[in-house]
């Protein structure tokens, strides 16, 4: 399995492409604007087809390229129902952002919940619900590889903003402590923006959320 970190879109949101050439399959985690043009050559180079698109949450910078990805590859789309309105009626987001963002609805095939398991590329991913940045933020935990894709819940030395509709610092703090800080310290966290970090690093030095 190979992992590609691909920043894309107006604010360089991280998308994560996981490919397995032996299986001929790939999954994409999040779809910032223009992501298809960036991943299509890599899919071809690795000799794989995109089988799934997993959305960590419904904010525009993680979904702007999703409709194009669906048209081009018809992947199985996964998201959390608490962000259903943002994903299916993205004009809501344009309303509170105060600008036209060129968003299109993304058809979701599977609404997942806390504790669900997803099988892809021959391995299992655990879904954990980490609201607070927005209601439907989820993370995908690949325990076999010591990796977790956390959306905008936590960053290296920071946390997701909570001033947009549906955000709550109290909820986010609880989510991070219960769902992220309970993972092994060596687990690598891949956030929606910026560089990767580890659970141990954030427990020790994140100034916004300290372990209980």
TrEMBL record:
Cofactor(s) needed: Zn(2+)
Gene3D superfamilies: Ribonuclease Z/Hydroxyacylglutathione hydrolase-like (3.60.15.10)
Keywords assigned by UniProt, alphabetized: Hydrolase, Metal-binding, Zinc
UniProt key word Metal-binding: yes
Metallo-beta-lactamase domain location: 12-193
Pfam families in alphabetical order: Lactamase_B (PF00753)
InterPro entries (UniProt xref): MBL_Glyoxalase_II, Metallo-B-lactamas, RibonucZ/Hydroxyglut_hydro
Source organism, top-level taxon: Bacteria
Protein name: MBL fold metallo-hydrolase
Upper lineage: Bacteria, Pseudomonadati, Verrucomicrobiota, Opitutia, Opitutales
